[in-house]
Write a structure and sequence with these properties.
Elements (H helix, E strand, L loop, with lengths): L7 E5 L17 E5 L6 E6 L5 E7 L9 E6 L5 E5 L5 E5 L5 E5 L15 E4 L2 E6 L9 E6 L5 E4 L7 E4 L5 E5 L8 E5 L6 E6 L5 E6 L5 E5 L3 E5 L5 E6 L6 E4 L4 E5 L1 E8 L4 E16 L33 E4 L3
Length: 328
């Protein structure tokens, strides 16, 4: 049953360093969101090489415990942010103006872990992950219709730390972070929310996934490994970065971008080596500045999906890029 809850808080913010006004996102760039519970958050657009393009400060115009978590770009070119922790909102940012609106919907939340909280936008929908927290015991995936911001819940009874959209047009939800055993990946058709399959993944503390158009799954984890899996969950290859991984995304160029605390790691699907750069901020979530599925009408309900993940290093204050071969 769909529950209509359309309460929005609107605000207009100015662009920060790197831009004197709002501008359309550049295809091929990346978005980084950052923020901690009770602290100001922001979304940044960077080139894959580490050059800041523009900044979108995020304020809490309503009762939202601001903390920038998962970020996604919709088919409409808008930025969708998982904004908060115990009482978060879906915050939508217009990159042309910097104007933002926040929607609580039927309610969702995440545990106070700096690596949790995911959002995925495609077509008329935006999806957020939901966990059982004090005062918000419901779990599953909450789907917003972005035409009127009504919302409904799917997959009730299962906690999801993250949700992401694959380049194959399918929706992926990550359940299990190593504390409750090996993680499991749920795969849905985002239009019908039909559960297509589940995939078991090997690796403790997996924090995020990204899926390529051919269904290959990439993950990042706190153990510092970026892993590649086949669509059925068979481990193919690993790459160890210098530090723990928080989030991961695929770029149209085929590059893989992973993030951690103030650090961004860039590699590719060969997983042979990586480069890195840093920004002077806290925990980071990453997304492609290009919607992975610009034409949702082409979604194949039974297609295999894939999610890619990247890992990053811990905080580094200098922005010098360094290149690291895979450890033997």
């Amino acid at each position: 049953m769909k529950i209509v809850v359309v309460v929005a808080w609107a605000s207009l913010v100015c662009m920060g360093a790197g831009s004197t006004r709002g501008a359309a996102l550049t295809p091929g760039d990346i978005l980084l969101s950052t923020g901690q519970l009770g602290a100001p958050s922001a979304v940044y657009e960077y080139t894959p090489g580490g050059t800041l393009v523009q900044t979108f400060p995020v304020t809490a115009p309503g009762p939202v415990d601001t903390a920038g978590r998962g970020v996604s770009v919709g088919s409409d070119g808008q930025i969708y942010l998982y904004d908060g922790t115990f009482s978060p909102a879906l915050t939508v940012i217009n990159p042309l103006t910097g104007a933002l609106q926040s929607y609580r919907g039927i309610g969702f939340s995440t545990a106070n872990n700096l690596t949790y909280g995911g959002v995925a936008a495609v077509g008329n929908y935006a999806f957020v992950s939901d966990m059982n927290t004090g005062g918000s015991p419901d779990t599953g995936i909450v789907r917003f219709n972005v035409t009127d911001f009504t919302s409904e819940r799917f997959a009730s009874g299962t906690e999801f730390e993250r949700v992401t959209l694959g380049e194959d047009g399918l929706l992926y939800g990550l359940n299990g972070d190593g504390f409750s055993g090996w993680p499991e990946l749920y795969v849905w058709n985002p239009q019908t929310m039909e559960l297509l399959r589940t995939v078991g993944l090997v690796g403790a503390d997996i924090r995020a996934v990204a899926v390529a158009a051919d269904g290959e799954i990439y993950t990042t984890a706190l153990d510092g490994y970026i892993r590649e899996f086949t669509p059925d969950g068979t481990l193919v290859k690993t790459l160890q970065s210098k530090d723990d991984g928080y989030d991961i995304a695929l770029l149209p160029s085929g590059a893989i971008v992973a993030s951690a605390w103030g650090t961004v790691v860039v590699t590719d699907t060969s997983l042979n080596s990586y480069s890195e750069w840093s920004i002077p901020t806290g925990p980071l979530f990453v997304a492609s500045a290009t919607s992975p599925v610009p034409e949702p009408a082409t979604l194949l309900p039974a297609a295999l999906g894939a999610v890619g993940i990247l890992v990053s290093r811990r905080r580094r204050r200098n922005s010098e890029m360094r290149v690291f071969p895979q450890r033997s």
